[in-house]
Amino acid sequence: ILRNILHWILTPLTLIALSLVQLWSYIVLAVQGKKACIHKLAGKATLAQ
User: What does the pLDDT read at residue 23?
Assistant: First the structure.
């Protein structure tokens, strides 16, 4: 039961943290534009191997 209480307490904090990370990514995308969209692992050169 202690584990359930811990999960009940930590769930809102986790959701808030996730929302803040997503908000930050939107802000970075709005400020930097296309320069912020770099994902080298999914690039054409990597996928062609």
Answer: 96
